[in-house]
Write a structure and sequence with these properties.
- The structure is a single chain.
- With 391 residues, the chain is of the alpha/beta class.
- The protein is built from 17 helices and 9 strands.
- Helix 8 packs across helix 9 and helix 13 packs across helix 14.
Length: 391
């Protein structure tokens, strides 16, 4: 009887494993949690947000809410949200929406944790409410199924925080504080035709970029004033102000991001990549301005301005036409347009950047390499420059 009991037990175990050679439809896979088994305490509230390590912010693009600036998220409400996220020990991920209706729908669907923006008058009272320059009313709303998150926000928020965040934002955007660098002369030795101590790097990498070496020099001066240790509050580094994430994309080790040779080489690869992405701009001179604008403000924003240019009857392949809409991407009527995908941008800075680089390039065009060409210089001259200016 004892042996018979063992056989029955083994058969039962085997039957459980094999399911008699069939898989029935009413057996859920182990990674599925059905609604019947889910307790109300399993709702994705504060504890689960902390465990997940991410707070999802639903908002619309705008100067008071969120926009990308030199590869970094900024905007008064975003910076405030970052402070709250830091307090609870998580990061912030932004889900951009086109309008308040889309935000509300995504909040109801559980796509996001906090909805930040302007709301209709019949919307339930936000958890945090304030005034914004771009909105009649601005607030944060949390789904009613997240009472612990609501409670944490209410206990954390102080109205004085808004002024602190605005001051932080103003300091970040101040031209004086944006890039920390030593300012070198825009022309090292005019009599001998030497723009900077880095001319050899610009000449060597001009073929990769597909640019005149003097244009690389003009861009470098605008980025860092020829300081290889320049760095910005957003994280951009070195002569050509390469962002760490961009360095990763370009195969530049972060340990070498301040190294002049590696930095300029990476920038040349980025310029070549951007040139390829704007290959539909047939005129080479025009394309240079588009590439400069994308380097500074992001290719997505420039494509948005091109779409607006075309919509309103301009020539989307002519920089003078597109620059107008780069500037207008600072206005709600335009960054909220249906053809715009990437929202608000500080377009005045990008237009100014393109103008300054082009004007400096025109100033440098009178400078010739010892061979009189755009891309090369004799090895002897290279050695002389290194010994004279890099010692």
């Amino acid at each position: 009887m004892k042996e018979k009991g063992i056989y029955i037990l083994l058969f039962a175990i085997l039957l459980g494993i094999t399911g008699c050679g069939r898989r029935t439809n009413n057996v859920a896979p182990p990674w599925v949690v059905t609604s019947d088994s889910a307790d109300q305490s399993d709702a994705f509230d504060l504890k689960q947000i902390i465990r997940n390590g991410e707070l999802i912010m639903l908002t619309v693009s705008g100067p008071d809410t969120y926009y990308e600036y030199h590869g970094r998220g900024i905007g008064t409400q975003y910076l405030l949200c970052e402070r709250f996220a830091t307090k609870i020990g998580v990061s912030v991920r932004v889900e951009l929406c086109h309008d308040s209706a889309e935000m509300q729908r995504k909040l109801d669907e559980g796509v996001g944790d906090i909805m930040v923006g302007a709301f209709p008058k019949d919307t339930e009272h936000p958890v945090i409410k304030g005034k914004g320059e771009a909105f009649d009313s601005l607030g944060w709303t949390v789904d009613s199924q997240k009472p612990l998150l609501q409670q944490e926000l209410r206990s954390w928020y102080r109205s004085s925080m808004l002024a602190d965040v605005r001051q932080q934002e103003a300091e970040m955007l101040s031209a004086k504080n944006r890039v920390h660098r030593r300012v070198y002369a825009p022309m090292l030795d005019r009599a001998n035709g030497i723009i900077s101590k880095w001319d050899d790097l610009f000449i060597a990498n001009a073929p990769t970029a597909g640019w005149d070496w003097r244009l690389l020099a003009a861009q470098c001066y605008q980025e860092s004033t020829f300081d290889p240790q320049a760095h910005s509050w957003a994280g951009a580094c070195g002569l050509m102000q390469i962002m760490p994430t961009t360095a990763d994309h370009l195969g530049l080790p972060r340990s070498q991001i301040y190294e002049p040779k590696a930095n300029v080489e990476a920038a040349a690869r980025l310029i070549a990549e951007l040139t390829g992405s704007f290959s539909d701009v047939a005129d080479r001179r025009e394309r240079i301005s588009f590439v400069l604008a994308a380097y500074n403000g992001g290719g997505g924003h420039i494509r948005d301005a091109m779409a607006l240019t075309e919509k309103y009857g301009g020539n989307k392949y002519r920089w003078a036409d597109v620059a107008r809409y780069v500037l207008l991407l600072q206005e709600p009527q335009y960054y909220g347009d249906a053809v715009v995908r990437y929202g608000y941008m500080r377009g005045s800075e990008t237009v100014d950047y393109v103008d300054k680089v082009n004007r400096r390039f025109n100033e440098y065009r009178g400078v010739h390499s010892p061979l009189g060409g755009s891309y090369s210089t004799p090895r002897k001259a290279q050695k002389e420059r290194k010994s004279k200016y890099r010692s």
